[in-house]
Amino acid sequence: FFSDPFFRDFENYPVLLEKESTELFPAINLIEDDTCYIIELAAPGFAKNEFDIEVEDRNIVISAKKEDKKVEKTENYTRKEFSYNQFQRSFLLPENVDENSIQAKFNDGVLRLKLDKKEQKEIVNKRHIDVK
């Protein structure tokens, strides 16, 4: 499974950065079948319009930003609360991914990307050549 370079980077990938960091890396699942790769990224609390997904030079970058501001005013005090969450994950795509057919869906806190594989031409290892 981890012989494919696409998956090799995730063998021992940490879920969090060092303890001093406040940036979280969402947990991911990587799935492969004969026709596609699937990336599932856990991002509860985000909305689908807060994601940005870009593909360039066989790299796919998935990022999201969320900022919440709450202000509560009463006669004697003002209370403000701010919340800011963001992350970015990037992956080097295998050469057999059709970059033009990548699809993304967000449902129940999980971003799911489907990366279709290009049709591979069958490699002929042996053939007979007629002598004329």
Give structural notes.
With 132 residues, the protein is mainly beta. Helix content is 3%, strand content 45%. The strands form two sheets. Strands 1-2-7-6 form a four-stranded antiparallel β-sheet, with no helix packed on it. The longest helix is centred in the N-terminal third of the chain and has 4 residues, at 5-8. The chain is rod-shaped. The termini are far apart. Mean pLDDT is 79; it is low at 10-22.
Set down the secondary structure blueprint.
Layout (H helix, E strand, L loop, with lengths): L4 H4 L19 E5 L3 E7 L8 E6 L2 E15 L4 E15 L10 E5 L2 E7 L16
Antiparallel strand pairs: 1-2, 2-7, 3-4, 4-5, 6-7
The ordered H/E elements are: HEEEEEEE
What is the distance, rounded to the nearest whole angstrom, between the alpha carbons of the first and last residues?
47 Å
The chain-level structural class is: mainly beta
- C-alpha Rg (nearest Å): 22 Å
What ranges have pLDDT less than 50 throughout 5 or more consecutive residues? 10-22
Quantity of strands, as a count: 7
Helical region count?
1
**Sequence of strands across the biggest β-sheet:** 1-2-7-6
Helix percent band: under 10%
What composes the largest sheet? Answer: 4 strands, antiparallel
Gross morphology is rod-shaped
Give a short synopsis of this structure.
This protein is mainly beta. It is built from one helix and seven strands.
Supply database-style keywords.
3-stranded antiparallel β-sheet, rod-shaped, 1 helix, 4-stranded antiparallel β-sheet, 45% strand, 132 residues, mainly beta, 3% helix
